[in-house]
Amino acid sequence: MDNSLSQRAILAQFNKTHNIADIQQIVAMRREELNLAPAASLERSQILLNLGIALHVRFILDGLLPDLEEAILLLRQALPLLPASNPHRLHVLQGLASALSTRFQQTGRLPDLTDPIAMLREALLLMSGADLDRPAALRDLAIALLNRNKWHNGRWDSADMVEAINLLREASALQPELHVDGRIFLHQLARALRFQYLQSSAQNDALILPNLPILDEAIQIHRDALEEIEESNSSISNSDHSPALFSHLALALQTRFAATRLEKDLEEAIALHRKAIQLLPGQSPDESELLTNLVVALHARYENIRQHDDLLEAMSTHHAALLLPARRRLGHSYSFNVLEPVLRSRFSPMRRTPCVSDTELPDYGAWNSVESLVRGTVSDSGAVSNSEDLSDLDEAIESCRRDLASQADDRAVLLDKLAVALYSRFTRQTDKFRDDSTISESIELHDEALKLRCAPHPERASSLHNLALAYHALYMTRYNTPSMDSLLDTSVSLFREALLLRPLPHPDRSSTLNGLGVALHTRFEHGGKRLDLDESIMLHREALDLCPFHHPDRASTLTNLAAALQTRSVQTRQPQDLREAITLHDAALDLRPEPHPERPVSLHKLGLAHHALFCVQRSLSDLDVSIAYYRGGLALQSDMHPGRPSSLSDLAVALRSRYQRMRELKDLDDALGLHREALLLLPEGHYDRIPCLINLANVLILRFEEIGRAKDLDIAIELCRETLQGFHRHDRDNPVQSLILEPFGRALVARFLRADEVGNSGQDLMDAADAYQAIVDSYSTPLSQRFPAARMWARLSDAMDDGHGLALQQYRITIELLPLLAGAGVDVQSRQRALTLGTDGLAREAAACAIRQQKYPEAVELLEAGRAVFWSLALQLRTPLHDLEAAHPQLARRFLDISHSLEQGALRDMSGTTSGSEGSNVSSEKENTRYRQLEADWMELIEQIRAQDGFHNFLEHRRFDTLSAAAANGIVVILNASSFRAECDALALVGSEVVHIPLKNLTYRQVELLAKHIRMICGTSFPSVPQSRGVIILPHKAKDADSVLRDVLGILWKLLTRPIFESLRLKASILTCRLKSNSPPRLWWMATGPFASLPIHAAGVYDPNGDTLCVNDYVVSSYTPTLNALLAERPPTTEEFKMLVAIQPTTPGQQSLKFTTEELRMIEKHIPAKCLITYGSTPGKPTLVQNILRDMPAVSIAHFACHGVQDARNPLNSALLLDDRLRVSKLMELDMRNASLVFLSACQTAAGDEQLPDEPMHLAATLLFTGFREAVATMWSIHDEDGPRVADAFYHNLLASRNPHTQNTPDYTSAAHALHCAIKVLCAEGCSLMRWVPFIHLGL
């Protein structure tokens, strides 16, 4: 059999029908043949060859790497079965070489490059000169040699390069002149020649012109081939190859234009790019690449002749490319096809293209010298001189030196006086001309003076304070060099010692408080220790208390406190910190009227604060105010003002933000110009150059994203790379370096994802992964930067994963950061807010990665560790300590004490902490700092406990051997949906095993759409229905809603639950051969991601005119937010059973619920009066929230019949509406050790959060985590009249199985079955789907 023809035949068959089932059938047939073939036979080798080729083709169509891996394995098995004399060995060699070359293209493994070369050489030796397959083999060998040369970064004239070109010449010569393959081979030869020219130019600029004949030949070959095709009216002009042929000629012409600047080459290239685009078939995966090629050519012509129309067309074409959906590209790597749909920027159809005036065209010429920008070697034609008059200081310094030399006075006083003068000169000197020797001498003099002022010298505090200031100043000039942290630590220690010597009411205490606060703020920014920032704020508040209105230091104290609060607002996303910062800056500005020298500083700080407020509130007015403050400050600053570079750079950042709202390209160009001006004012090595360079790189990256100019991205990458070279390799734990690494990694990923030939560079991807890893490894970098870097690192590693489990390890590292991100020492609102910052989907991505590696128990562990982090952290503070108390009672007692304090602190109200007096704010800061210290103590104590024998895994995430116990009472099915690769899987815990059930016909996007339909028909966008416990759709829409719901449930049955049941029937004895049953077994659903919004328990086929087939026919469904929730022990049975029932027939501002009274009567029919605590039944027993909270810890069952509300923005404000709101945050404070069951007969009590589906924050989950073992709740609004009917049937069935030893106590294990029966009652009465589906059971 001819190998190439068989592969071509399979593809031809698919192209006729476009039915993947045809390929599936071929694969299935070949597998059957293989099972029947004798071992080690020639017949078997032929079948292995055929199956290998079929799997290779299926990979080409589907992109599933396991198919390619299996194809290679089968072809390798076939090869030893065929001796050299067998003609089929040739076909196997070609097939295996082709498959290995495909895998190299996908994964970049070097063996997949070298092995095909050897195989193709052997194949060529077995071929005759007239063999029809010889040209293709020559071509394949040439491509492999070119790839090897590229992989090794070989020379343009290397042996591999020369041989590859000669092979392509030979292959082209062997084909008839007008043969289609011959023309294609000619184009491949021309591409190889262009690649050779590009390689020579990159390796030696001097070869750009001498090697032009190579490029000329390539162009001529392209041109001749296309002319012959058009003259012969060949079918190739209408084939899929045609657009690429025109495109490659255009690229060659562009390359020649870059070398010669011949405009006619560029004009022809643009025309050819347009023709290539016109020839594209519909939905071609190459469309994005061809559009990008045109964008590059248009930008080149714009840069050459600056035509407004070229720029407009380039931008519109770039935006058109970004509107295209992601399509798999066979010629690109597996990593590219995995990452491109998720990480590449895409625009919506409503996105405006940038506006640009023909009178204000951008100038690209200023950005061609990267190194000069980084190194500070830009032409000084616009630079300034050190013109500030420092003669007064120089004169004072000389006078001090003379006095010191003559010993005219007390030596310590003279030393101090000279040191202060030198410090003043250093700080007043323009940054560009500062001399470190000045501040170094100041430190030496202060140190000598300090030694002369031993305790209890009255001026010792002054010497300590001044020496601390000098160390801080020196650190600020050197902090980006290794081993400089000691300077800052020394400064902090000296300030602390000075502060001890300046107790109240010392007049200089406020000055030292300020100095220490500034030093700690600096240490936080460069070290990331949150306690430093909290202490800094506390010290500045205390200093402000000591600076009354007319105090000379009040303005600077206000500014320092505001700056620290603003930094904290960035870390914690606390808007009140930012608002207070603006108020403080305003107050400081009022104290600095013109011509106060510090007024520009206050204006600059206000600009920063209002820009930060814009980032939170997205109000354009805040941004306009910010820009106005920046411009106002700059107007008061001379070129020599030390703050001018920062003001210029920050104004540029604000303009970048305004561009993102207004899309005026001039804002971006102005931002670039301002950054460049700032760099001109800063000397090489100055610490302010780093943020300026970072911001400049960010603007260039943004401009690339907006207009598609590739050079902007290249320059941004080189800026970051050159800047990083200033850091030493052993100085990796440097948060400043992390600030550069983030845009560096982002730019590299953007270039990797480029659609043209520049993209898909494995080196860019590896460099990006290294950059993100370096951020993660920098423990001094704030967690708010480390976590997103860790997640990106894991994603890139996942896309590049070669099966060694590195990606899985990195996912684990990222998940381990989640509890640190949430923080045990912060209030619950801050904790919940922190978990909204890019955490959603992490655990699902990690689990999907483990599933692909068939590590199913590890997938379960990752899902449990990475979901419900909010509650996991809260429950750690309530961990039972029986074993620890027995072995180490002191450690147990200390752990309980700290945990109790942290739990109380977490529930504190932080909403009004900045609204009081300055004194109360100081108290609040002290409290925050105390809780931060408690958190540090708690973490240290955990490590201490883990060091004890037998407690090494104390509070660590549970392993699978423990988690598997969640399936002790029935199967648990975990539904995982990951957006990263659009994968969906089910993992069933059956006994102590995990059964993987791939959901091949269900994609993440489909699940998302189904969840969207559910939210649409149950959302609050519809008017209310009278007598409903919440919001549902209008009565006349009910039929439409039921139809939509019926369709959703039918899809879920077909694509989700039926495949699961079919798989479990084969592998789980509990479901084997079971038909519809009156006593079906229990099954728990643990739904993740968008699955959490779907009524999986009701999936089925509901034919109005026929029988139904649904989940409820086969199992009793329950839900669980986590596996740990199923591991909770039930409370001990007590003789005194108590049940609380709270009804709220009328609620101000809500519709009346008259049937809640009937619901209470139904409950009283089944529960003895002595066991009931009721509220709301009479005017004398109102549902007071304080009474409910008082009684809840004592009851075993709680039943609420009322309105409920889900707060999507702050789930902790979700509440049951009684006389007042019974909020989630209040329920969290309760210790409900007797709680077994809660029935929430209200709306939305189990409604998931669309933005954070893996952090279950609804009322039902809250009550499970706060102590109840199980809950009955609703996914959406219920009809008021259904409440009594469900309650009647539920409690009837629950009490029917009461505990025989305690007459009144129900058997709680039957709660799920009781609800199952109650729903059957509603169904039997003909209730619509919308009415019975929302009722669900959660927990044990």
UniProtKB/TrEMBL annotation:
<feature type="domain" description="CHAT">
    <location>
        <begin position="1049"/>
        <end position="1308"/>
    </location>
</feature>
<dbReference type="InterPro" id="IPR024983">
    <property type="entry name" value="CHAT_dom"/>
</dbReference>
<dbReference type="Pfam" id="PF12770">
    <property type="entry name" value="CHAT"/>
</dbReference>
<protein>
    <recommendedName>
        <fullName>CHAT domain-containing protein</fullName>
    </recommendedName>
</protein>
<feature type="compositionally biased region" description="Polar residues">
    <location>
        <begin position="911"/>
        <end position="923"/>
    </location>
</feature>
<dbReference type="InterPro" id="IPR011990">
    <property type="entry name" value="TPR-like_helical_dom_sf"/>
</dbReference>
<feature type="region of interest" description="Disordered">
    <location>
        <begin position="908"/>
        <end position="928"/>
    </location>
</feature>
